[in-house]
Amino acid sequence: MNHGHRLKAPISAAAGGMGLLLLLASPAFGAIGTPYAPSETTGLGYTSEQTTSISPGLMVYTMTRIRTNPITNASVTETLRQVAGPDGVIFGLSWSGIHHPRLGPLLGNRLPTQLPFSRGPRILSTPHLELRMSGTVLHSEGMAWDPALVPNGISLSNVLAIP
Amino acid sequence: MIRRIRVCRSSFAKSVSGHWPRVFLWVCLPFALLASCGGGSGSAPSMSPNQIPITMASTNINTPVVSVTVCIPGTSTCQTIGNILLDTGSVGLRLSHTVLSIALPQVMDGANYVYECMQFAASETYGPVVTADVRLGSEPLMSSLMVQVSNHTLTSSSVCSPSAFETAFNGILGVGYPFSQYDMEYYYACSSPTACSKSDELSCSDTKNPSDPCHVSNPVFSLPVDNNGVEVTLPGVGTNGASSVTGTLTFGLGTQSDNSLAGLSVYGVSGSSACNSSFYLDATFTGLAASGACGFLDSGSNALFFGTTTFTVCSPLNNGWYCPSPSPTPLSLTLIGSNQIQNSFSLQVLNYDTSIAGSGKFAWNDLAGPIGSKATFDAGIDFFFGRTVAVGYLTSGQSPFWAF
Lengths: 163, 404
Hints:
The complex is a heterodimer.
Chain A: E1 5-6, H1 12-23, H2 38-43, E2 48-54, E3 58-68, E4 75-84, E5 90-97, H3 103-106, E6 115-116, E7 122-126, E8 129-136, E9 139-145, H4 156-159
Antiparallel strand pairs in A: 2-3, 3-4, 4-5, 5-9, 7-8, 8-9
Chain B: H1 9-15, H2 30-36, E1 51-56, E2 64-71, E3 78-87, E4 91-96, E5 108-109, E6 112-119, E7 124-135, E8 142-150, E9 163-164, E10 171-175, E11 186-190, E12 202-203, E13 229-234, E14 246-251, E15 266-268, E16 281-286, E17 294-297, E18 304-305, E19 329-336, E20 342-349, H3 352-356, E21 368-369, E22 376-379, H4 381-384, E23 387-392, E24 401-403
C-alpha cells in the first residue's frame, strides 16, 4: 500500500539539523537577532536569493520559493524578506505566499510557547517581538521585527514591504 | 522542498468552462425567511435530518459552534463533542486532545505515526492524525475519516508553532474554504510527535489516493447525498449585540427541500484573477481610507478585519480591535464574484472599548479590527448574522462559489 512518498532530505538539511541542535542554546544564524545566513533559509526551501542595500545602510535579503496552488495548479512565488541593520544583524522580516514560513526558527526563539489561538489577523507585541500576520488557507502574509533592534529613523512598513 | 499536491485537476479544468449550479426554484423554508429579518433569536429552530443547530459560545465573543459525533471506526464506541467552532475558512475536523475521551486510532505511515501541522491565517495546530467514524446530526454515519487531534503540548518547534484553542472551543469543523475536500497542509511521519523534523515531511502528491495519509478532510464531502456544499443561516443580532443566537447549518445545496439557493446571489470563485488566485472574492470598500481589492467570508474569524488609517485602533490591551468615533461608524462593502455578480452591503463598526467590552453579550455584527500590511477585507462572522451564506464546493459537476 502506497502511503505517500517521503521526500529525500536535501543536502542542506544536514546543516539545518545541526542548527536546530544549537537552537536550544542560541538562535541559529539567519534568525532575527543574528547575521543573515543563506543555509538557514535554503533549509526552509528558499532557493533564490537577492541581496540589495538600501538607505540608511540596511541590507535586504530577498528569497523566493515556488509553491503550487493546490487547486489551480498554478505556480506561486512565495517571498521571504529579511532586513539587517548597519551592524549586519537581522532586525525584521516579512513574507507573502500560500503558506507562511516556519516562524519558530526564523524568529530566533522569540515566539512565545503559549501562543494564543488567533481567529483573524494576529497582532502580537512583546518586548522583543512584534508580529503581524493574516491570510487564509491559500494565502499568508505578515511581518515581524524586534523593536529593540530596529535602527533609529527608518520606516518599518517601507523597509519590510514586499514589492 | 516543494509539496506537489494536486486536487481535482480534471474537475477544475472542466468547471472553469462554466458549470454554475442550478438555482432550484424550491421555496425557502419559513425559518430562512425569518432569519433574514434579523432581530436576534434565542429560540431553537426545528431541524431537518440534514441540519444541525449553530449556537454562539458563551465564553468567547462571536464564536459559532456546533456538535459532532465521532466513533472508534467500526464500533459503537462514540463521543458527541459540542462547542466546536464552525469555520467556513478552513477544511477539516480538528478536536482538542483535552476533550477526546475515546481512543481513536492514529494513522500510520509504515512504522511511523502521522502528525500534522495545520496553518491557519495566523495560528497553527499540531497533533496526531487519527481516523474516526463521523456523524453530523441525523445524516448517515461516515466511515473512517481522518481527523486531527490538536495537542500543542507535543511541541515540535522545528516544524510547527502550535497554539491551543481549547480555552475557547473544543474543536474546529472546517466546512469551507477553499472548497477542497482535503486540507493540503503539512504532514509528517515520525517515530514520536516531538521527534518530527522537516525531513519527515510527507509529500502528499495525490490527494485522491485513498491510501494517502494526508487526508484530514471536510466531512461534508463524505456525506452520501448532501455533499456539495453547506448553508450557514444565522438570525440578525441588531446594533447592540445579542446574548444568545441559534441558527442552522444545512448540508447539501439543492439536494433537499430545505437547501435551495433560491433568493441568494451566486458569486463564483475561479482562481483566475489576482484576488481569485487565492480564491478570494474581488472587493471594494468605502467609508474608510482603505484601498483593498480582495475579500473573503470566514465564519471562523470573530470580526470584520480590514486595513484603514481612519479608524482608531483601541487601547493597547485591545489593539486587535477598532475604536472608531462616532460609534457606530458606517462602511460599505462590495463583493464581486468571478462571474461578475456583485452586491454592496452596508456594515458598521462599534467602538470596542466603549460599546462591546464588558457587555456580557457574545454575538456582534459590528465588531471590527485591523488586518496586516495589505487591505484585504476579512468578512468574519459579523457578516453572517441576518443572512444565509452558502459555500458551494468544487466537485466534478460544480464550480466553487459563495452564495448570499
